[in-house]
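Blinded run. Sample ID left blank on purpose so nobody reads anything into the name before looking at the predicted structure. Input follows.
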Amino acid sequence: MNTVTPDTSNGPFDKRAELNELYDDYRTARLNEKYYGWRLASVQRGALYIDVLVAVGTVITFILIGIEVCAAALPPVILPLLAGASALAAVVKPFFCFEKKVERYAKLVGDYGAQTVELKRIVGRTQTQRGLTNELREKIENVRDALGRLVPLDDPRPSRKRLEKLQEEVNKEIPPGRLNWAKEQKAG
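Blinded prediction complete.
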């Protein structure tokens, strides 16, 4: 039987603590990927709604100017209200900074997604090798460095309710107890 012995030449390691930390990092990266995916979709939806409102208002403005027959078919207050709402939306849209938010959230989704994939690979290797080698430890540190660089981009006040819901989803995808092969090995 060919087994891989974990490399401990850099000193003794608490294997269980290392694995728990790795699995927590994996679930946290996945949670952040899902959260910023949700934020990105929300911002894109908001931008779309405002764009549609502006477009509808523009069309209505042209209707008001050019075709009085159509304007007479609707209550007289509707078209001017829609045109006014459209104009207001066009004026306030830049203050929402949709483009900057979309760019930021897209970066966070992509980067957290890439780190989640890398952590999944590392977890898979620790399970097949039955331990962490120094090579895997180095990869983990590289991932943690990359995750640390994302922290300044994180939302300062994330939605707690959304995070709790997404954490439940992550725990279904990546059950905390399933990852710890050391427990399975002890039982067997």
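Unblinding after everyone has recorded impressions. The CA atoms of residues 110 and 171 lie 21 Å apart.
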